[in-house]
Amino acid sequence: MTETLGLGVLGLGEGRSIISAGVNSAAWHVACLCDTNAALAQERCAEFGLTRYTTDYDAMLADPVVDVVGIYTPDHLHADHVIRALEAGKHVICTKPFIDDLSRAREVMAAQQRSGRQVMVGQSTRFFAPFIRQRAHFDSGALGDLVTIEASYSADHRWFLNKPWARQPAFKWLYGGISHPADLVRWYLPDVSEVMGYAYLSANGRAGGLANPDTYHFVLKAASGKIARVTGVYSCPTVPAERDSPMTCILRCDRGASQADYHELRYAWKIGDQAA
Fold this sequence. Notes:
This protein is an alpha/beta fold.
């Protein structure tokens, strides 16, 4: 019988997704849940038929049954929680954004190297069905050589203003939002060498108490000379989904073009007179 890995989950709001995945996987068993909110921990245990939870992160890290820690806490806590898990000898899965401040990147990387444990960032965008179809179509060669990419993640996320931690200076849409379309660009252009952009804090964001910009436009240039555009707007209304998907990637190539939209699960392409 194949040995399963024991999963401990820290942060049971956003962490619900990995709990669900864990209890439905033959490779994992959910060993322990952890949250400062005991009532939420009890609720998740009841929801998924689990029994073990704690409000003490150190207690979960000391648990020999836990092999891997899934970290789903607010963004500004990720670096410390990742480092503590690594120092305890645990592997780590951390939701994106991995960190909220590049100044801590080397510190976290050094902790991983010292520990010899694996770290995975739960960046999900490439695994959404429309983007998988788009990538496979591009890899088939049917669209031809890539000319440029336009990727965006713009959504009416004013409901985020109701989250106290989203109004803290540590919260940045640069990491929590723009990371999605930027990752799509880097999927096709991994050798980005130049970036130019502007950011702005909208009136809605200011009124809601955001400390950092919520509106972004970037142009990226790869070493090959190919260019891409990345856009993110998070505190404004949007037009109907028929015209404006929250998350979009457009590939313009020399023989055809394609567009993948999530959350609508749409994929469209055109090559000459053919389209679908």
